[in-house]
Amino acid sequence: MKFDTEHMPDEQTFMKYLTVSFDQSQDDVWNNIAPEIEEPVVRRISWQRITLTMAACILLLIACGVGLRSFTRTTTTQVGLHKIVGLPDGSQVILNADSRLEFKPFWWWMERRAYLEGEGYFEVAEGKKFTISTRQGEVSVLGTSFDVKSRTNEFQVYCTSGKVEVKGTAQPESFILTPGMKLRLEPEFEQSNVEEEVSVIAWKDDIFFFASTPLYKVAEEFELQYGGKVSIEDQQLRAYRFQAKFQAPASLRQALHVLELTFDIEVEEKGDNHYNLLRKKP
Q: What is the pLDDT of residue 5?
C-alpha cells in the first residue's frame, strides 16, 4: 500500500485540528457506564433448609456414635492354644485354651468392659472402673491383676494384686477379694485363701498343677490344653485322685505317660489322638 505523502499536513498543522473534550463531569461518566455493570445476585437462604441440614448432620453424628459403640472386637482361642490380647488402655489378657473375649474398642474410653467365656488372666492398667462380664457374674477392679474362669459348670475368680469385687448374676451379694483370695461358685459362692498362687494360674506358664484332683478332671484339662480325646469308662478309675506339679509335655501322649508312671494304669490308643485309660489287669 502506498501513502500520498505530498498532500498530508505536517505535524504542527495536524495538532492544530486535534481537540479532546473534557466537558463531561464525573456523574455523567458514571451514568454512561453504570448500565454496563451487572448488579450482584443476592441469594436468600431459607431457614427451613438450614434446619433440615443441621438435623441431617445431627442424625449422622448419632448414627456414627451408635456404630462406634456397637462395634465389637472378638478374640477366640482354640483347644490347645493360649493367646495374649492387648486392650486399648494398655491392659493385657492371657486367654486360656477354648476361650472367647469380647470388647468394644471405640467405646473403651467411655466404659472399660469386656465379656469372657472360658478363662483369662487379666493385668489391668490403672484408670476408671474395669469390668469383666460372664454368664455367672461380674468382676470389677480399678487397677490390679486377677484370673477369671467362667466355663459351663464352673466360675472362679482369683486375685493376685490390688482389689477385686465379684457380683453373682443370680445372687445380689458382692464379695471383695484381696491378693491371695479365691472365690468359687459351687453351687453357691465359697470364699477361701490360696496358699500357693501357682495352683490357680499355672496354666498361663504351661504348668500343670493338680491338688488331689479326680482323674476325670485331669483328663478334661489334658483335652483342653492338647485337644484330642481321653476316655475313662471305669468309674472307680475316674475317682482316682491325682496330685502333681509339672511342666506341660509337648504332646497329649506324653502327658498321659505321667499318669502311667503314677498309677497302675495303661493307656490304650484308639487312633486319631483318642486315648482310653484302663486299670492294668492283675
A: 46
DSSP state of 103: E
Cell of 60: 449422622
> What CA–CA distance (Å, rounded) separates 181 from 176?
9
The pLDDT tens digits of the residues spanning 108-154 come to 999 999 999 999 999 999 999 999 999 999 999 988 999 999 998 88
Burial of 162 (0-12, 13-18, 19+ CB in 10 A): middle
Which residues face 85 on adjacent strands? 93
The set of residues, in sequence order, having a beta carbon less than 8 Å from that of 136 and lying 6+ positions away, is 150, 155, 168, 169, 170, 185
pLDDT band at 2 (very low <50, low <70, confident <90, very high): very low
pLDDT for res 230? 97
Rounded to a whole number of angstroms, the CA Rg of the chain reads 42
Residue 4 has pLDDT above 70, yes or no: no
Each residue's pLDDT tens digit, 145-164: 999 999 988 899 999 999 99
Considering only CA atoms, which of 228, 188, 250 is closest in space to residue 98? 228
Burial class of 188 by CB neighbour count within 10 A (0 to 12, 13 to 18, 19+): exposed
* Nearest-angstrom CA–CA distance, 158 and 154: 13
Residue 207 CA, chain-centre distance (Å), reads 27
CA 182 to chain CA centroid, Å, is 26
What amino acid occupies position 237?
A: L
249: preceding bond cis by omega (within 30 degrees): no
Q: How far is CA 75 from CA 100, 112, 117, 152, 237, in A?
A: 6, 16, 11, 19, 37
Contact 179, 157 (CB under 8 A): no
